[in-house]
Amino acid sequence: xxxAHPGSVGVAIQGVVHICDEEGNEVPQGESxxxxxxxxxxxxxxxxxxxTKSSRDPKGRGWSTLGDVGYLDEDSFLYLTDRKAFxxxxxxxxxxxxxxxxxxxxxxxxxxxAVFGVPNEDFGExxxxxxxxxxxxxxxxxxxALEKELIAYCRENLADxxxxxxxxxxxxxxxxxxGKLYKRILKDExxxxxxxxx
Length: 198
What we know:
The protein is an alpha+beta fold. It has helices at 49-54, 97-104, 140-157, 183-194, and strands spanning 16-20, 33-38, 68-72, 78-83, 88-90, 93-95, 110-120, 124-133, 166-169. InterPro entries: AMP-bd_C, AMP-bd_C_sf, ANL_N_sf.
């Protein structure tokens, strides 16, 4: 049955999975939200009562979350779509960067990509992409042309609000030897220059 649900992490073996919006209301099947687990077993973060408290269901039902975002299909198979910590809030709109990363990484001129929120005076945050291109642009004009091409490509496949407003290029993105992208390192560069954080 798992083969009929490619990309899924499977079904809950113990306990019940709930997908909730920001207020803790359950969302319909197929809609993304914060993943909560209802189980007799509970956990606490070691020496971090605030983090433990923030991992609890806002409606006090005893459910817990690890901060993952995802959805359930009609057969209750769970799909992970992003981490809540990476969510971008731009003008009150919640944007999951994984959506635009999935689009951009399929562009033939892109090797690797990281999408995250950067400071915006009017909207709080805006969507930024940092791309490792197949070939680094040789001039500012080439970089500008590739930036426009990638933004247009994203907008062909995704709502404008979810697409980057700007793209920077790097010869390589910071990754752990296991392949984990160090998105926080990139994001911190932009936020430290702003002198504030979200």
